[in-house]
Amino acid sequence: MRYAVTGAAGFIGSHLTEALLDAGHDVVAIDCFTDYYDPALKEENAAAFPVLRLDLAADPLDFEGIDGVFHLAGQPGVRSFGDVFPLYVRQNVLASQRVFEAAARDGARVVLASSSSVYGEAERYPTPEDARPAPISPYGITKLASEHLARAYAAGFGLEAVVLRYFNAFGPRQRPDMAFTRIAAALAEGRPFDLYGDGSQTRGFTFVGDVVSATVAAMERGSGTYNVGGGTEASLLEAIAVLEGLAGLRLEVREQPPVPGDQRRTSADTTRIRGELGWAPQVSLADGLKAQWEWVSGRVAAR
Q: pLDDT digit string (tens) for 130-140?
């Protein structure tokens, strides 16, 4: 099969691209190397494959001969209020609309990477796909808007689209602004860690390898919307304790005010993806954190 992966130099995108190549597929890797974080890290992520540099919101898009598009590109992070909001609209909503337009025109199936952020403070936990979306961050709003656009192109132009709501992916190559990378780096470098909130907020964490396998399964045989969650819900303080045990060190934690738009809890009901796609997470939080600690500490030691 011939696939395109947008955001291919990012955290999940680079793992997905490598998995597709390893499975013998032809992959067109696409990324525009935005400066949300150091583009050199993305260059490192994508060292094993060539990347086509495209701005999805502006450049011509051609998916002729592409069987499926994994649309993972986007502007991440819940710190999306204020002056940066137009960038989120451009990178998440406009870019997605142009991907859907081109994919519908060229007959390519699409898997859209959405987010548990669309649920906001959910009405129930674990949260099923039919729960009412109520995002509390502009980021979550733009992800929900992209979901609606996918459905509109499906209804109006016959686009085959599957929506995946990722729940807190972690593992090697995780973005430097995300909590587990920051915790591990602070431990490895012997410096304090700024904890936003009191640490009691919980997340349903999902190892990146499990995210990749769910994403591939969705392209092959999925339809509609699926939660992709690792099945383990833990607080940040519990995750810190695991990383401290792996490092054999104590972390100095400095509590900071909570970030506006940050959810108190995420927890995925994965009944649908388990039943329809036969997917289930394989990597525990402890094993995934071990892999992430080894990746972060190895990078710190190599400096």
A: 999 999 999 99
Q: What is the pLDDT of residues 257-300, one digit of tens each?
A: 999 999 999 999 999 999 999 999 999 999 999 999 999 999 99
Tens digit of each residue's pLDDT (9 = 90 or more) over 45-82: 999 999 999 999 999 999 999 999 999 999 999 999 99
Residue of 3, 36, 88, 139 marked active site? 139
Task: Report the amino acid identity of residue 97.
Answer: Q
Instruction: Measure the CA–CA gap between 97 and 93, rounded to whole angstroms.
Output: 6
Q: Which two tokens stand for residue 250?
A: 């104590």
> Which residues are within 8 A (CB) of 13 and not within 5 positions of it... i.e. 6 or more apart?
5, 6, 7, 29, 31, 45, 70, 72, 73
Residue 139 catalytic?
Answer: yes
pTM over 0.90: yes
Q: Report strand pairing: 224-228 vs 161-166.
A: parallel
